[in-house]
Amino acid sequence: MAHPDEEVWAGMLRDALAGDEIRYRSFLEAITPPLRRLVSVRAGGMGTAECEDILQDTLLAIHLKRHTWRVDEPVRPWLFAIARYKIVDAFRARGRRITIDIADFAETLPAPAQEDPTEAGDIARVIAHLDSRSAQIVRAIGLEGAGIAETGARLGMSEGAVRVALHRGLRKLAALRRSMLE
């Protein structure tokens, strides 16, 4: 059974294809509300702005492909097929992400991560494997955040010597870590 608007739409589109701009404008105005409903139902979960974008893409595709409609075929299935393809394209472009307002879940989110209380002891045990000078440099720069120049001045070393000692100390710590993992 044909939709009540089918013959009206088909007549308007036939006239539009024959060059009647007024009938073409009437055709677009007539098909926009049902296409908008289709898009909002099928693209559930997308926002109003995204649905309007899909509707505009659909109307543009109809305009660009209007010559592909066969005048002996119903208009409605042709229109709705284009709309469905545009909805699928929008979902593909969007990916599988879902936009959710984080404020809705603020009470159920875990608390911010706190420092591991055993971490300081682990670091101290590992640094203890270094010679005294390297351990001081690694602690000062790596843990306390001191600069190369400041550490050099505190230990009576040149900046170059501090860099070399830091590099050697870190290399030894990396080797210790590898041996612990094996």
From TrEMBL:
Q: Where is the RNA polymerase sigma factor 70 region 4 type domain?
A: 122-173
Task: Give UniProt keywords alphabetically.
Answer: DNA-binding, Sigma factor, Transcription, Transcription regulation
InterPro entries, sorted = RNA_pol_sigma-70-like (IPR039425), RNA_pol_sigma-70_dom (IPR014284), RNA_pol_sigma70_r2 (IPR007627), RNA_pol_sigma70_r4_t2 (IPR013249), RNA_pol_sigma_r2 (IPR013325), RNA_pol_sigma_r3/r4-like (IPR013324), WH-like_DNA-bd_sf (IPR036388)
Write down the superkingdom of origin.
Answer: Bacteria
Question: Is the keyword Transcription in the record?
Answer: yes
Give this protein's Gene Ontology molecular function annotations: DNA binding; sigma factor activity
Q: Which residues belong to any copy of the RNA polymerase sigma-70 region domain?
A: 49-97
Does this entry carry the keyword Transcription? yes
Q: What GO terms describe the biological role, i.e. biological process, of this protein?
A: DNA-templated transcription initiation
Q: Which family does it belong to?
A: Belongs to the sigma-70 factor family. ECF subfamily.
Name of this protein: RNA polymerase sigma-70 factor, ECF subfamily
Per the UniProt record, the source organism is Saliniramus fredricksonii
Gene name, Swiss-Prot/TrEMBL = rpoE-3
